[in-house]
Amino acid sequence: MWQLAGKSLNSRLLCGTALFPSPQIMRQSIIASRAEVVTVSLRRQTPSKNGGSSFWDFIKSLNVHVLPNTAGCRTSKEAITVAQMARELFNTNWIKLEVTGDDYTLQPDPFALVDAAKALITDGFEVFPYTTSDLIVAQKLVDVGCKIVMPWAAPIGSGQGIIDPRALQTLRTRLPNTTLIVDAGIGKPSHATQVMEMGFDAVLLTSAIALTNDPENMARAFAGAIESGRLGFESGFMPERNMASPSTPTIGTPFWHKEAISK
Amino acid sequence: MSYHVVIIGAGLIGRLLALELHLAGASVALLDRDSKEGKHSCAYTGAGMLAPYAELEISEPIIAALGIESLSLWPQILKKLPQPVFFQEEGTLVLAHPQDQAELIRFKSSVQFRLENGGWQKLAIARSDTNVMFDCNQPSIIALEAELPRIFTNGIYLPNEGQIDNKQLLEALRTAIEQANIPWHTDIDIASVSNRGVECKHLRHHSKNVVAELKSYDFIIDCRGLGSKKDIAQLRGVRGELLLVEAPDVRLKRPIRLMHPRHPIYIVPRENNRFIIGATTIESEDMRPLTVQSALELLSAACTVHPGFAEASILESRVNCRPAMPNNLPAIILPEYTGSPKIIGVNGLYRHGFLIAPKIANLVLAYIMNKPIDDYAQSIFHKGDPVLAISH
Ligand SMILES: Cc1cc2nc3c(=O)[nH]c(=O)nc-3n(C[C@H](O)[C@H](O)[C@H](O)COP(=O)(O)OP(=O)(O)OC[C@H]3O[C@@H](n4cnc5c(N)ncnc54)[C@H](O)[C@@H]3O)c2cc1C
To answer: Is the pTM of this model over 0.80?
Structure first.
């Protein structure tokens, strides 16, 4: 069990709902992933308004916590408006805050992000900001009141894995009391294990599951990988040994070994 | 066949079934809330691509199997129609910009995976023992489509695919149905078709014929597409938007699919320098006209495929919601499931209506006439499949 914004959860995998071949495969994959939080894009999967209700009913039938996002917003003003709509429509104060700075890479605009986060926190939202692995941006987000920060491992949808492990490690070390969820860039289960071993609190995935040949099994693979990484982190790793120069004196070494070496 | 069959919904599958049942000897009647032009049907919007292999990128192998059979059925159907319908089998070309090469790799790997794991290979091989998917380098891309810009250095060619002009097809089916003297009642809004019977809005305004039609029948086939939502709870709409343009400077012979991580598009040539540029896929039942965002995505992508589109005129924008089941597969819903011994539902054609309609129509006829059903197609017959049962 761990706590995410006041909710007790078992799973440390958060799953997106877009890009799956069909709602049925999405449902089976989310069940296989054991995720208890799913993200939903407000812009394009709007419930009640504009009649997106069938897909929304489908998500509701999964009985999971919904984390609406502001995907597609390019300014803080736009993101704030979408967040407010999401609060009404999905009946939650959770918001995954995305403010796009570059249309092709979908790299977040850190300045607009911090502005929007500040306004939304004042307005009572639980903000999950999607950001790069830059320490200062993360620090500013914490300064304006974010309890959760979601750095990327690599650009969204790229599947490149951890492009800057040192930056991620720095974030973890310098923000020990912030919930850090790696969002975007993960391609393989081993990438997820790696970030969990670094001590990140959770991982958010979409493409790495949805865009594969067998999403349901990939979801299962990620569930295992994330659990392994976390268990490893909690158990404390054995220190790495430098085997090149023996640290123990050779006095106690049996003579037949010595012979073997001298041969 | 001496049955009297009432078909509700004269869109794509409704029209096709009416004609095929009539030719099989049944007495048929058609009802639709729309006029015979069918402007509100999804079929009026559709791009008419017949792409059994390319669709494997996101669809299950059964779609390809139904599509491959249907591709060989279309020419026979078109021969029965009194008007010409533009139909060709020039294959599909799949492209991606240099920075999006990963999308091409993913496309190929998905298609390959489903080709190899589909368990229906025999069918594919029966149609053509040659390869169904080729890698293209720049010279082979230019050999296929001479006007494409040189930025496209890699592509995938799927030779065994085709396309059909949706509007010409709807018109030709209409004429065939009229010439066969099949009664076709327009402006009849059927609110519900269920074990409680057929609920018709404002029936008193309509002729006695309709009332008579609905009093005695052997089968009702519900083909209302998304209009059946009230009766088929699992049905949902998936919004799609596309544009029809006239581009005198563009000569492309075959459908082109441009892969992109977020905004994949296709360009489908029609006769007389006209092209369909489509289509968005949005999980929403919103029927409002084309949005600016979608228009920008579709048109800017099209201009990168051929700069000649910049000078094209936009003739039409079309929007509709594709009727889909949760598994995005077609469903022939049997009386055991509809709750009435006489009602059959044919729905969930999603983005594959043109691709699979001929085979779907054959399967419905086979069911009614108690003929054997192909093993691979059994799974689309629903008698009450618990997989589809979602709590609402
Ligand atoms: C943008 C777009 C692009 C597409 N491109 C392709 C493509 O390239 N290739 C392909 O194979 N497929 C394509 N499709 C999908 C294809 O158009 C559909 O699968 C197909 O039209 C579905 O056929 P249908 O007969 O089930 O429904 P429809 O064609 O929608 O017909 C339903 C009929 O029922 C009638 N009806 C509805 N409600 C009632 C009521 N209450 N009372 C009486 N009548 C009613 C309607 O008026 C209509 O005539 C596309 C769809 C869209 C939206």
So the answer is: yes
